[in-house]
Amino acid sequence: MDTKFDLLVIGTGTAASVAATRCRAAGWQVAVIDHRPYGGTCALRGCDPKKMLIAGAEAIDAAHRMSEREVVRGEIGIDWPALMRFKRSFTDPVPERRRAMFAEKGIAAFRGRARLSGTNHVTVGEQVLEGRYIVIAAGAEPVALSIEGHQHVLLSDDFLDLETLPRRIVFIGAGYIGFEFAHIAARAGAEVTLLQRSARPLPAFDPDLVALLVERTRRLGVNVQLRHEVVRVEPRGSAFAVTAMTSEGDARFDADLVVHSAGREPAVEALDLDAAGVEHDGAVIHTNEHLQSRSNPAVYIAGDASSTRLPLTPVAALEGKAVAANLLEGNHAQVDYNGIPSAVFSLPPLARVGMLEAEAKEAGLHFVVKHEVVPHWYTAVRVNEPCYGFKTLVDKGTDRVLGAHVVGPDAPDVVNLFALAVRSGLTARDLKYAKFVYPTAASDLEYMLP
Fold first, then answer.
1. How far apart are CA 241 and CA 168, in angstroms?
2. Is the pLDDT reported for residue 310 higher than 80?
3. For residues 63 and 81, what is the distance between their CA atoms, to the nearest angstrom?
């Protein structure tokens, strides 16, 4: 197999695949490298398999809510092995499909751990590959836990492959992963504890709506503990003792499984960035506005490896496209991160787009806020969901939507509509003029605006 290419791409996820296929379509000789099954985080270890598991939790959640009104009767539960088989029906074919796609397009695919070994060189096993350009799109990995007994903690990736669900689970970290996995596990029948070292979980989301979600999560039976910094995990026979430090002294929690849900960081430590003269600050690679290394112009970074403030699959696709454009046509493309929505797929979900209220104040903007808790609205009453609230921010001078935040039924889809407004410059009046199918969550949108 050839060892000289126009482009070497480290990773096979969304950003990597977009950059590789676009450059190959332009006639470049392209190679991709991955030490894990082809497909990347989202398709294999992240958003897609997670939402396959959430589908089971959604069914149970709906049944339980309706049983409170005696609409549904009888016992109902999740068969965890069957739910895993359902998840694998999606994930298992992904690596072979991705490999076949690379082959069909004439992209060389290498299996093995990549290591930069020169300005334009990548070593894979015993092979040294040379490329005019290198794209680092290696995704993200769990941050290292600096606690005693960290070796006893299961990674979030591994939670998605559990053959059986333990009775008692402690999650270390109350971010996206912690909340989503806690809601899945609790609805599957586990006793769940969620430990967060700070006073505020989910800091990227509106604090008032996060408080609603925390309350709802506790009502579900999840033991949410804030200001609890885990310092030690000790084996106790076949179980574990988790010790957390609090302002009132140490607190202990017993668990059959302890899961790392304390966040992820760019997976670049093993690449030996220094060997290629790529300046970095730990996991953060220094790049210019074109996602190009400031110190090695042959290297570009895209996706979760790029250290952007939005490590999301749609962002990875945007960055992959921008990098490909800059490689093929010279540096000119930049990524517009404005108006990109994100969500926590808890039950109910929490979603946002645009600015937080605190961010708008810090920017000195003059805006109107509308914030309500509305479990009495039809959207919530119809499904017997007590957690429904929103907050919207509209600029006083331009009437443009600055931010929108929703927790409750179908929150991500409602926020998607607000995202269109934020990204395209639609005004609050424009959104109120639009009419949506009634009754749907989207038809609530006009009443969420000031």
1. 11
2. no
3. 20
Position 312 confidence tier, pLDDT thresholds 50, 70, 90: confident
Q: Show the tokens assigned to 337.
A: 């991160």
310 to 107, 133, 324: CA distances (angstroms): 28, 25, 19
Type of residue found at 96:
E
Let me know: does 102 contact 116? Beta carbons within 8 Å. Answer: no
Distance between CA atoms of 41 and 13, rounded to whole angstroms?
6
**Which two structure tokens, joined as six digits, stand for 438?**
């009634």
Question: Is the Cβ–Cβ distance between 196 and 174 less than 8 Å?
Answer: yes
Q: Alpha helices, DSSP H only, in 92-206?
A: 94-105, 156-159, 176-187
- Tokens 């290394």 -> residue: 293
Q: Residue 325 in contact with residue 334, Cβ under 8 Å?
A: no
Instruction: State CA 197 to chain mean position distance.
Output: 20
**Mean pLDDT across the chain, nearest whole number?**
95
Distance CA 213, CA 180 (A): 11
The answer to whether residues 405 and 391 touch, using CB atoms and an 8 Å cutoff, is: yes
Tell me the C-alpha distance between 38 and 41, whole Å.
9
What is the C-alpha to C-alpha distance for residues 390 and 418, in angstroms, rounded to an integer? 12
Between strands 191-195 and 168-172, the pairing is parallel
pLDDT of residue 75: 87
Average of per-residue pLDDT across 261-272: 91
Tokens of 329: 């046509």
Q: What is the pLDDT of residue 283?
A: 85
- CA distances from residue 73 to 63, 67, 146, 190 in whole angstroms, order as listed: 9, 6, 47, 21
**pLDDT-based confidence at 307, cuts 50/70/90?**
low
Residues with Cβ within 8 Å of 81's Cβ and at least 6 positions away in sequence, in order, are 163, 164
pLDDT tens digits for range 405-449: 999 999 999 999 999 999 999 999 999 999 999 999 999 999 999
* pTM for the predicted model, two decimal places: 0.94
Q: For residue 235, is the peptide bond before it cis, meaning its omega torsion is within 30 degrees of 0?
A: no
Of 156, 163, 155, nearest to 180 (Cα)? 156
